[in-house]
Amino acid sequence: MSAHLVFVGFHGSADRATPESQNEIIASTLRDAGYEVRAGSAEPRQVLRLLDQLRLVVANLGWADAVVACQFSGRRAWTTFLVTRITRRAAIPTVLVLRGGSLPQAAAAHPHRIDSTLRLTTRVLAPSSYLERAFRDRGHQVSIIPNLVRAPITVADHPPVDLDAPSILWMRAFHAVYQPELAVAAFAALRERHPQATLTMAGPDRGLLDATRRRAAELGVDAHIRYPGYLEGEHKAEALREHDLFLNTPSIDNTPVSVIEAMGAGLPVVATDVGGLRDLAQSGRDALLVPDGDPAALATAMAEILEQPELAATLRAGGRAIAERHGAEQVRRAWTTVLSEIGAPPEPAPRDGCAPLRLADVSAVAAVHVDAFPTSGLTGLGPHVVRRYYRWQFAGPHPHPVALGAWRDGELIGFVVGGTRREAVTGFVRTSPGTLALGALTHPLFVRRIAASKLRAVVGTLRSNRRRAPQPGAAAPTGDAGRAPAGASFGILSIAVAPSHQGTGAASELLAAAEADARHSGFAAMNLTVDVDNHRAIRFYEKHGWRRDGTDAWAGRMVKVLRPT
Q1: Sequence-separated (6 or more) residues with CB below 8 Å from residue 375
Q2: Which residues contact 333 (CB under 8 A, 6 or more apart)?
Q3: CB neighbour class for 540 (10 Å; exposed up to 12, middle 13-18, buried from 19)
Q4: Neighbours of 238 (CB within 10 A)
């Protein structure tokens, strides 16, 4: 059975007048990867779209393995503000994707609306280091997955530059953010050096098409500009083949897909140096970036490319490398890795062997836990508390979660949960008061047997974590994308095998799979805690290369060094 995703965003390109959004491209890619995706909404009116998106989420809480939502600025930020509160209460893993070059400014202006939303999210993704850096500085841990760019043509399909009559392509919406009138002014300045140059301004009208045409007429270049409207498919491919240079003039930007498409097609790029453009491309190597609002500088940069073949060749090579990093296979693999970590792998559970767990496996995981640990605190509060606990292990804001299961003849017989987990226990306690209260009411004798010292330890940990909780503006520790910070340790939170399958090698298989993930991710060591009186478990771990931690009096902590710190 395919994993189930709910994808919240604007999915409105079916009218063929609206460009296909990155939301739709990623949703389509995930379907191709094997996911069943329910997406919305195509409603153009914002309030109705919000209601439709909330209905989509609520109606599929019992179906979804994960929810993906796009975080925008402005009024659209209310969508994720509400969605994350619904999914947190239901313990559904939620992936938030940061969108828009103005999002850092919006977070500064409305910190509660946006920062609180990110703190309720399982994973936060950004398409650029520009957004990753901005929100890391606000105390959030953000991973980078580039936008996916479907290249309409490749460099090999592009003909040589026509220096006698160069053609310039501008392909954004006629909206104030993209400054089409600045593009016209730059083109007029370019024609003073290249009087045979032409400009194509392609894109949907968002209120400035008439003003742009008036400005072109004032500058005497309207007859040399084409306005073909929004281009897609073969029409876009033809435009990329027919033009020699790409002009990009926004005042705010992040990781523009149109720019990456142009790079992949072999067009040198001239762009305003705003937002995430300098994080996408290095000026002089991958593109030419010039100060915003300076049409003369834009014209000079375009002329340099047209007049210096070596510079044009350098920019084509750099742009092609950028486009390759945004290819379908790389982005698909990154997405499936993130979704697998939070309980939504693309493949169904195997009949035999070890593989990532899914949120849908929680009931089976809880059954194994109850059988393997009949006297544990969780088991004593009832199976519903155990299930909620493991749902939290998928839904919580864990930096690097690992959840693997072992199957025999299609039956889950064991599991391991580990990685680096934030609020693994304290977050569960804080977000599940109703579940815990019900467990306490239905198992009063067990609650009485809980040692007061354990209660004090939990309360003390909760208070300590609250004092240490990152605040907006506080930097969060982070390593390279997809790898652990130097010296980080991979923790085993729980490992269990059903009693009927103990001694079959399942525990060794699970431990080896967890260690393989830790090594691949660059962790320096692994750690776990074992009951000091459980001599059988201690001997098992020592057999697999673990040792008792000698830094303190023996308290059951064991470690395995993976690489020098």
Answers
A1: none
A2: none
A3: middle
A4: 14
Could you list the mean pLDDT of each consecutive 10-residue stretch along the chain, which spans 565 residues?
90 66 90 93 90 96 96 91 95 94 91 94 93 93 90 66 84 96 98 96 95 97 96 90 95 90 94 92 95 96 94 93 89 94 90 93 96 90 94 93 95 96 90 87 70 49 45 36 63 96 95 95 92 91 91 82 75
Please say whether the beta carbons of 264 and 319 come within 8 A.
yes
Specify if 340 maps to a domain: no
Residues 232 and 354 in one domain: no
- Of 329, 211, 255, 262, residue with least CA distance to 103: 255
Query: Of all helices (H) and strands (E), which one includes residue 6?
Result: strand 4-8
Same structural domain for residues 143 and 164?
Answer: no
Q: pTM of the full predicted structure?
A: 0.80
Cα separation of 226 and 212, whole Å?
A: 12
d(CA 519, CA 521): 5
Q: Which of 444, 306, 449 is nearest to 375 (CA)?
A: 449
What whole-number distance in Å separates Cα of residue 427 and Cα of residue 271?
45
> 123 pairs with which residues across the strands?
95
- Structural domain includes residue 523: yes
Instruction: Please give the torsion angle defined by the CA atoms of residues 522, 422, 342 and 61, in that order, rounded to the nearest 10 degrees.
Output: -170
Give the dihedral of Cα atoms 319, 322, 327, 330; nearest 10 deg: 160
- The answer to whether residues 404 and 552 belong to one domain is yes
Q: Is 565 exposed, middle or buried (0-12, 13-18, 19+ CB in 10 A)?
A: exposed
Domain with 161 in it: 155-324
Indicate whether 406 belongs to any domain: yes
